[in-house]
């Protein structure tokens, strides 16, 4: 049986199919790198795309990879932790799959920012580019090639974290 995800986008229910193989590999790689950093630092909690967050504006979102600081997570009640956490992650990564619409993902990233996201990355290996989202700043766009993929810094949000994008191309 196929599992379809239901997403409410600007008041419209969108049924989304599961990701394909390459997107699944890339999502797993991203989650692995963030999780390994977090295991060492113990600064917060990492979530995969199956977690839905209820943002302060009422929107429900599930980034491909997200992270919430320990302080913010532990301030939630047990009931809130077990359900859809009523907060916006501190950090989020979106990775377009074959069925995703890039302008909608860009809008989604701005939605996160408007709800207290501290750092966000929209990583598109097909273009290939990375859009970096920070509060009160213009979106920064980095273009790269398979031969010279960038390493992204977690800045002050994920201190000491460096994301190696090279594995996203070695499929």
Write structural notes for this entry.
By secondary structure, this protein is α+β, with helices and mostly antiparallel strands. It has a single domain (20-168), classed as tt1808, chain A, CATH 3.90.1570. 25% of the residues lie in helices and 29% in strands. The protein is built from four helices and twelve strands; from the N terminus they run ββαββββααβαβββββ. Strands 3-6-7-8-9-10 form a six-stranded mixed beta sheet, sandwiched between helices. Strands 1-2 form a two-stranded antiparallel sheet. The longest helix is centred in the N-terminal third of the chain and has 21 residues, at 21-41. It is globular, with a radius of gyration of 15 Å. The two termini are 26 Å apart.
The side-by-side strand order for the widest beta sheet comes to 3-6-7-8-9-10
Specify the oligomeric state: single chain
Number of helices: 4
CATH architecture: Alpha-Beta Complex
CATH superfamily: tt1808, chain A
Q: What class would the helix/strand composition place it in?
A: alpha+beta
Give me the strand/helix succession: EEHEEEEHHEHEEEEE
Unreliable spans: 1-5
Compute the separation of the termini in Å: 26 Å
Question: How would the global form be characterised?
Answer: globular
Brief summary of the model shown:
It holds the Pfam family Uma2. The chain is an alpha+beta fold. The protein has four helices and twelve strands; from the N terminus they run ββαββββααβαβββββ.
Keywords:
six-stranded mixed β-sheet; 12 strands; alpha+beta; 171 residues; 29% strand; 4 helices; Nuclease_put_TT1808; tt1808, chain A; globular; 25% helix; disordered N terminus; Restrct_endonuc-II-like; two-stranded antiparallel sheet; Uma2; single chain
């Amino acid at each position: 049986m196929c599992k379809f995800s239901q997403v409410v986008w600007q008041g419209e229910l969108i049924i989304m199919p599961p990701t394909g193989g390459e997107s699944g590999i890339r999502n797993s790689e991203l989650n692995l790198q963030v999780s390994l950093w977090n295991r060492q630092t113990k600064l917060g909690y990492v979530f995969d795309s199956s977690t839905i967050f209820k943002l302060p504006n009422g929107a429900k979102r599930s980034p491909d990879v997200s992270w919430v600081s320990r302080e913010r997570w532990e301030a939630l009640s047990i009931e809130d932790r077990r359900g859809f956490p009523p907060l916006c992650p501190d950090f989020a990564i979106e990775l377009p799959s074959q069925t995703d619409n890039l302008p909608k993902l860009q809008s989604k990233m701005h939605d996160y920012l408007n709800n207290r996201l501290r750092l966000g990355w929209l990583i598109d290996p097909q273009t290939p580019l990375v859009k970096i989202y920070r509060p009160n700043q213009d979106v920064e766009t980095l273009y790269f090639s398979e031969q010279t993929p960038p390493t992204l810094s977690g800045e002050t949000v994920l201190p000491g974290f460096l994301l190696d994008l090279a594995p996203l191309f070695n499929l």
